[in-house]
Design brief:
79 residues, 2 helices, 5-stranded antiparallel β-sheet
């Protein structure tokens, strides 16, 4: 159950994050994930709980989990 796509020079992964309910939540999660090495883009959507991350290479799931946790939310897995 993975929503990960490889395109030339980048990997797009969609994660499910529980607990997001507003724009502030989206910003908090996006801000933490943007700090991970290799991440070029993060789009969080509170209404669906989905966070789309574009990175140079596949990200370590534990690093993603720690970043989401630091923002105050819970990584529910990949969409």
């Amino acid at each position: 159950m993975t929503a990960q796509t490889d395109t030339t020079g980048s990997v797009t992964t969609v994660y499910k994050v529980s607990g997001m309910s507003c724009g502030h939540c989206e910003g908090a999660v996006s801000g933490e994930l943007s700090q991970l090495s290799g991440v070029s883009s993060v789009t969080a959507v509170a209404s669906t709980g989905e966070v789309t991350v574009v990175s140079a290479a596949p990200l370590d799931d534990e690093a993603v989990r720690a970043a989401v946790d630091e923002a105050g939310y819970e990584l529910a897995g990949r969409a």
